[in-house]
Hints:
Number of helices: 9
Radius of gyration: 23 Å
Number of strands: 11
Largest sheet: 3 strands, antiparallel
Distance between the termini: 59 Å
Low-confidence stretches: none
Mean pLDDT: 85
Amino acid sequence: PGVYLRVEVETGDITTPVKVLSEANLDLLGFLTYLNLIRAASRHGQAKVIVFDDVFASVDSSLRERVADYLFSEFADWQMIFNFHDRLWFEQFRRSANASGHSSLSFEFGPWTPGVGPSIYSAPPDASWALRDALASTPLDRFDLTGRAGLLAERACDYLTVSLALSLPRRLNQSYTLGEMWPSVHQKLRTSSVGPTVDRLHRRIHMRNMSGAHYNEWAQTISLDEAVEFAEVCRDFWDSIYCDGCRNVVAPHRGSISCKCGNLLIV
């Protein structure tokens, strides 16, 4: 016993899928076939739970969103667990789940140690705690402040360039720095309701490289007031794009930019 698939071409001839479909489409056909076999098995008592362990690696990028929409539509009453290694795919599937009304929880795996194992936290987490601790510490350390502030600004831009689908210079390894991401973020948000905060950060964005990333003599001239000012504007920028209620970064929703719960709205 087994499952045998056949393809009927425009001429009416019947052949095997391997003769007419690309490798990516063969993978997609196998994936969809497996899903429907699982769904058929659920009618005979199998639990409605599916685990996807990075199974979309061979699916063409043009089909990703259609696959996500199909899953959250056809398996709306199922529990689905996804493991992603690609941030872009993760964001696409998360947006599709939100758009379909499919409730979801997101987690990220952090550093792993033999004694403790992996750290697991909600995604995206509130990354501002380290900077807030630095601002509340006594005495204040100007280099610690600028370093943590720069990291927070870079993380905010990392999330925003994905959630807002912003253009970036092409890179083979998909690793981008603050200097590469900030221009598109600034261009997108400078005329919005968070424009004043964005402009404040834009006037101080050089602090990330001048002090936060270096320990040369010319970087020692930064004053404590300048460091605090840079740290505070990075904190304020994070607060303008990250909702502590639904733990989501703002994204396009119904013609505007907002968090999932609507508490943060950028117009």
